[in-house]
Amino acid sequence: MSLSAIFILDSNGTVLISRDYRGDVKMEVVEEFLPLLNKHEDAGIATPVIHQNGISFAYITCNGLYVISVIKRNANIALTFTFMYKFIQIATQYFDKLEEESIRDNFVILYELLDEIVDFGYPQTTDSKILQTYIFQESYKLKRASSVPAVVTNVVSWRPEGIKYRRNELFIDVVESVNLSINSKGAILLNEVCGCVKMKVHLSGMPQLRLGLSEKVLLAINSHELGQDPTSFEDVKFHQCVQLSRISDKNIYFIPPDGDFELMSYRTSTDIKPLISVKSRVVQNSSSRIEYLVKVAAHFKTTSTANSVEVTLPVCQDVDSPVFKTSLGLATYAPEKSAVVWRIKYFPGGTENFMNAQFKLSSIKGEEKPDKTPIQVKFMIPYFTVSGLQIKFMKVIEKSNYKALTWVRYTTQNGEYLVSFN
């Protein structure tokens, strides 16, 4: 990637911040951007990159602002957009929100950041934790260390030297979110799991970590398939600290950043039965009464329990006088949502529960039809993963030869979990 310049414009096209990195384009070229964008929009063309006279404008919008990278040479456009989103993330961590007012109040810091994270059009240090060690904010004024910290020039740029803890330990969280969509005929439109391995590291020195994952997971990462297993791992991404060349020997090697970070993320497409199924029926007993019948069943192993299960059932807007019957949990009417919220604190695997909600109709409109808004389900299942990913071991190697405690936790939770009325 090689940027010629970067600009931040307000919604009217006024330049708030600009930085010329290579001197190969005129800074007035940005005046062509908004007219070109309007021309494309009028023609019904939606594109994140606009070309004009050998110059490309790659842009993203953020809180009414345009963040624009001007490119004259052939560049990796995916890396360009990754850089721009990373810049927004850094700015957000400095002053909460990147908007016109925060830019005007903090333009000194923004210019310093743009100078630090890009050199002659090439990205450099983009780790906000490192940047905050020598570029920091106090009363909108920048104070900077007299010299560049060693971490910037160190081979391990994401971890400074000299870290010490009285108690050496690390925490590993495997979190999977289930996205499910089922239509009114019971057909599954979407059934996928988005997972990540998060870590909190409190280790002294410069430790080398060796993490062992389930063999089938590493096989999937290396071969992009799992043979006969119905679950396949896709879109696997690792933190920059991971030594990718050594993954093939069934271990993951890395020198971790200090504190919280995401070691890896992944997505799996699965054809297994939904963890929690929902069947619903609407019965109108008369022109003035309506009844909702709901059955939920847990299709995970009986040794697991779903916690904080919440089923949100949309109902007609003109209902009143609710009467509920549940086999487990508590159902309440939320008129501001036009919905019934059924909460179950503990839902054991392999069981099913029922809820009956009866309402009076405040106005007679003939036969009521089920709301097109789907039923939403929330849940959290500890000590359980859908993908089968498991942490087999974690070995910490450090020259002082200290012993570190390792804590591992597994959690499966809902993502966008939607079930239409049957």
From TrEMBL:
Subcellular location: Membrane, Coated pit
PROSITE patterns referenced in this protein's UniProt entry, alphabetically: CLAT_ADAPTOR_M_1, CLAT_ADAPTOR_M_2, MHD
Pfam families in the record: Adap_comp_sub, Clat_adaptor_s
Keywords tagged on the record: Coated pit, Membrane, Protein transport, Transport
Principal location listed in the UniProt entry: membrane
InterPro entries with a match to the protein in the record: Adaptor_comp_med_subunit, AP2_Mu_C_sf, AP_mu_sigma_su, Clathrin_mu, Clathrin_mu_CS, Longin-like_dom_sf, MHD
Domain (MHD): residue spans on this chain: 167-420
GO annotation, cellular component aspect: clathrin adaptor complex; clathrin-coated pit
Membrane topology: Peripheral membrane protein
GO biological process: intracellular protein transport; vesicle-mediated transport
UniProt record similarity statement: Belongs to the adaptor complexes medium subunit family.
Protein name per Swiss-Prot or TrEMBL: MHD domain-containing protein
Organism the protein comes from: Tenebrio molitor (Yellow mealworm beetle)
